[in-house]
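Before the break, one more example. Copy the sequence into your notebook; we will annotate it together after we see the structure.
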Amino acid sequence: MSAGDVRAFVALPLDDRAREAIAELQARLRPRLGGIRLVRPEGMHLTLRFLGSTSPTQIETLRPLLAAAAAACPPADVRVAGLGTFPERGSPRVLWLGIEAPPAILDLQRACERAARAAGFEREERPFKAHLTLGRWRDRAPRPDLPATDLGKARLETLVLFRSDMKPEGAVYTPLVEVGLGRDRRT
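Here is what the structure looks like once it is written out:
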C-alpha cells in the first residue's frame, strides 16, 4: 500500500436483531469448532466488493458511483440461513452463513463491481456468493459437522464503503461513505 492508502471494502451492514441472532449462533457453535477465530457480531456485514489497497483518489471516485448505485436499490429483507465452509474441499479456512439475496441486492452488487472497475480496480474473478463470514481457522482443522440453520430475515438499509484496520483483537471497520438504500447520499 502507498502512503495515504487504506484497506477498504463495500458492504451492507446487518440490523441489530440479525447481529444478536448471529451472536447466539456463534455461542452455540463455538464448542464444536476447535481452533476457529469468530468474527465479532457487531461488525457483521454482507460484503459486496472487497477492494484492498484504496487511494484517497479512488475513494472520491467511488463516492458518487456508490451513491447512485444505492439510490437505485430499495432497502431489502434477506433470509439468513445455511452454514458452510470455504474452501468446499480439504481443510476449512472460513465458516460462513448464507444469505438469500433478492434480485435488487444482486443488481447492487454488480453496480458496486462496475464502480470498483471505474475507480481503477481489477475485475473480481471469483463469482459473487452472498454470505456472512462467521469465523476463520488459522491452522488446519477437520471439516465440522454443521447444523441446519435458519435465522430468519435481516434488514439491509445502508451501503457502506468501509476502511478495515487489522488489529490483534480483530479487524476494526470505519465507515468512509454511508449511503441509505433508495435515498440520496448521507455522508
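The CA atoms of residues 71 and 184 lie 6 Å apart. The radius of gyration is 17 Å. Try to locate both features in your own notes.
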